[in-house]
């Protein structure tokens, strides 16, 4: 697990040298990739590189199908919710994305592990997943967010007071991914600010760091891969506004609104 941080927040000389070297090597090589989620060559339905628990979750996890107004209309497996049909369509389902900030206001950025089913090696916000159908009912969004933050980032549940989460808005988007597995979601955007203990799961996350707001725009072009489509849309359309106003997020929240942002290339 690499803790890759901007030079301004490196804690030792070795990490500083590694970060500077990576910047020089990748500034040109990945100049075009970081802005978009370009589909890669289709892979077999489930690649041999996919971690076993994630492969099993494709058929074990039951996701929530919704209509375009985010009304719950049924269920489907995680596999069926992400499989791209021959006509390019994907089942619309409910999801959430958590943006995590420490009390200083730095944002947690992670790189999805190479063995992820969807968008492996892409950079994104702290946690992106789905509420599930559990005990014959749809899981609450914040309950699901706390569950996944505990599983992916190792944050203890007792450090995640539900009252600290701000439900900002919803985003409806479609992305073909690699042409085999993609996304079509109504994504609930949650902000969470606290100094929490983090111990990322290496099956989920390969790199992570906290990025200061004044370093973010300069840091993004140095990344060794593209951004996930949902993170890229939020970055372009709302992130600056919300990041500038962490102290009054509830005033800016539009939980009843469903936005359709474009993921410009």
TrEMBL record:
It is an enzyme of class 5 (isomerase). It catalyses: isopentenyl diphosphate = dimethylallyl diphosphate. It comes from the Eukaryota. Gene3D superfamilies: Nucleoside Triphosphate Pyrophosphohydrolase (3.90.79.10). Residues 91-233 form the Nudix hydrolase domain. Pathway: Isoprenoid biosynthesis; dimethylallyl diphosphate biosynthesis; dimethylallyl diphosphate from isopentenyl diphosphate: step 1/1. Pfam families: NUDIX. Keywords: Isomerase, Isoprene biosynthesis. Its EC number is 5.3.3.2. Catalyzes the 1,3-allylic rearrangement of the homoallylic substrate isopentenyl (IPP) to its highly electrophilic allylic isomer, dimethylallyl diphosphate (DMAPP). Belongs to the IPP isomerase type 1 family. This is isopentenyl-diphosphate Delta-isomerase. It comes from Iphiclides podalirius (scarce swallowtail). The lineage of its organism: Eukaryota, Metazoa, Ecdysozoa, Arthropoda, Hexapoda.
């Amino acid at each position: 697990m690499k803790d890759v941080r901007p030079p301004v927040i490196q804690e030792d000389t070795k990490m500083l040298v590694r970060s500077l070297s990576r910047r020089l090597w990748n500034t040109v090589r990945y100049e075009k990739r970081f802005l978009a989620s370009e589909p890669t060559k289709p892979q077999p339905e489930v690649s041999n590189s996919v971690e076993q628990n994630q492969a099993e979750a494709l058929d074990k996890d039951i996701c929530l199908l919704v209509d375009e107004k985010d009304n719950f209309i049924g269920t489907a497996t995680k596999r069926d919710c992400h499989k791209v049909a021959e006509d390019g369509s994907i089942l619309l389902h409910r999801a959430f994305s958590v943006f995590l900030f420490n009390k200083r206001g730095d944002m947690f950025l992670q790189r999805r592990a190479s063995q992820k089913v969807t968008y492996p090696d892409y950079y994104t916000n702290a946690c992106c997943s789905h509420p599930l159908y559990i005990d014959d009912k749809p899981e609450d969004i914040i309950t699901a967010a706390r569950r996944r933050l505990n599983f992916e980032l190792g944050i203890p549940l007792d450090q995640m007071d539900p009252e600290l989460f701000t439900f900002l808005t919803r985003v409806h988007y479609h992305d073909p991914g690699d042409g085999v597995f993609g996304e079509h979601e109504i994504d609930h955007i949650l902000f969470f600010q606290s100094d929490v203990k983090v111990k990322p799961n290496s099956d989920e996350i390969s790199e992570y760091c906290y990025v200061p707001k004044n370093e973010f725009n300069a840091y993004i072009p140095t990344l060794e891969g593209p951004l996930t489509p949902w993170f890229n849309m939020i970055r372009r359309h709302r992130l600056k506004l919300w990041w500038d106003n962490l102290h009054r997020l509830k005033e800016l929240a539009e939980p009843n609104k469903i936005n359709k942002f474009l993921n410009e290339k």
